[in-house]
From TrEMBL:
Organism of derivation: Aequorivita xiaoshiensis
Keyword Signal: yes
Signal peptide range: 1-20
Stated name of the protein: Multidrug transporter
Keywords attached to this entry: Signal
Superkingdom of the source species: Bacteria
PANTHER family membership: LIPL48, SECRETED PROTEIN
Annotated region described as Disordered, given as residue ranges: 288-312
Biased composition (Polar residues): 300-312
Length: 421
């Protein structure tokens, strides 16, 4: 018995010592149960599984305090599990996924610049369900996300994803398109934080033809979230996309977007005020069907019987195509979506610009919900836009007038320092 007891104490002591930092300068390699060989800086088998053993001062991919070594301005990535702040006294280099977990808040000082390594789909920021972002820039000191590449281009990095618990069409929850996280629920007034005066450039990395990041994506975001004064420049997919939710937005600009400027699906029922979308004359990126507005009632038109389909209200919209690349539609609403649109203006910027359709409410997988469509819009025929090119659907109300005065002031976006053509 004494011999057995002694062996137990010896084994226990060895187990404890193997899970602490070794006194020597060189890590001791230990083979875990799964066959992986780990040194003491990454952890060893501590009872049936190979769990990481924390070592003070070393990175472990988890940011759990402001002093955590993973909160590294030169190499920013990891899982944020506590309230942390990105300060404006340095340029932060986003080198991988930065995932803010439930219960944590990521704060970003006004005037902060975050440069993303051109790593494609593995570089992005996501605010998960139950987490918050507190990114409050100002007109004089906006927050800027951009590419760190010497010659930046659209698709250099993923973008910004906000995930909430607000309702989706058909109810329940779903899994995000690009990072496999849960979104949606029943909390209409869910609060994912604040974003004001934030710019995101060179976003939209593509996984494949069906899955891609947008500039800024709202997944089931609730109406207690504050979204105002955002800008997306040079995105390889959509500038902004709403997957369900009730979030309200204000003063959004999208410039030189390869696919859709403003896109919604799966039951978005929020409001938008002052949306401005523009393609410049030199922007010649090609995609299958770029649009100014694209609105679906249910996800991909695959659930036409869903309750609670998209029905946003937009007050103030400008869409201008100056590119020689033809846009599919300036406004496309389909697949059960409604839309109340007022103070809208659509134009071409030069005689070479064109679009297949001005307004189209028809689609092979379901037309717009005409009883919920009420559009009042100014089309500028002097720019070559065919304002009679309207494909309507039953019960829809569409009032088109000819005019030359945009309905959203460019001055709202002076904070971006963008030089309008």
């Amino acid at each position: 018995m004494k011999k057995l007891l002694l062996s137990t104490f010896v084994l226990a002591a060895l187990s404890i010592s193997s899970c602490s930092k070794d006194d020597s300068s060189d890590p001791v390699a230990v083979t875990c149960n799964d066959g992986i060989q780990n040194g003491d800086e990454t952890g060893v088998d501590c009872g049936g599984s190979c769990e990481p053993c924390a070592v003070e001062g070393q990175k472990d991919g988890i940011i759990n305090s402001q002093d955590d070594p993973d909160l590294d301005a030169s190499d920013l990535k990891g899982n944020v599990t506590a309230d942390v702040r990105l300060t404006n006294d340095t340029v932060w280099i986003l080198s991988g996924p930065l995932s803010v977990k439930e219960g944590a808040t990521l704060s970003i000082d006004a005037g902060t610049t975050i440069k993303a390594v051109a790593g494609g789909t593995n570089v992005y920021v996501v605010i998960e369900q139950g987490a918050k972002i507190n990114a409050v820039g100002t007109a004089d000191a906006p927050i800027r996300f951009t590419s760190n590449a010497a010659n930046p281009r659209s698709g250099d990095w993923g973008g910004i994803i906000i995930i909430g618990k607000a309702p989706l069409s058909g109810g329940g929850t779903a899994t995000t398109e690009v990072v496999d996280l849960t979104y949606g629920g029943t909390v209409e007034n869910d609060n994912s934080g604040v974003m004001k005066y934030v710019e995101a450039s060179y976003t939209g990395a593509r996984i494949n033809g069906d899955k891609e990041f947008n500039g800024i994506t709202f997944y089931g975001v609730g109406n207690e979230t504050v979204i105002e004064n955002l800008a997306v420049f040079y995105c390889d997919d959509d500038a902004y996309e709403w997957f369900g939710g009730t979030v309200n937005v204000k003063n959004l600009i999208a410039v030189n977007i390869k696919d859709d400027m403003f896109d919604w699906t799966q039951g978005w029922t929020g409001t938008a005020k002052n949306l401005y979308g523009l393609r410049e004359s030199h922007f010649t990126a090609i995609t299958e069907d770029p649009r100014g507005l694209e609105g679906d009632g249910n996800l991909d038109g695959n659930s036409p019987g869903d309750t609670g389909q998209s029905n946003p209200t937009i007050d103030g919209l400008v869409l201008i195509n100056g590119s020689i690349i033809e846009m599919a539609d300036m406004i496309k609403v389909r697949r059960g979506s409604g839309l109340t649109l007022t103070n809208a203006y659509v134009a071409f910027a030069n005689e070479d610009a064109k679009a297949s359709d001005f307004i189209d409410l028809q689609d092979g997988k379901g037309n717009a919900n005409g009883s919920l469509v009420n559009i009042s819009i100014v089309g500028n025929s002097s720019t070559g836009l065919d304002i009679s090119d309207v494909k309507s659907t039953e019960n829809a109300v569409i009032e088109v007038t000819d005019g030359t005065t945009p309905t959203v002031s460019r001055d709202l976006f002076n904070w971006t320092a963008y030089d309008f053509e």
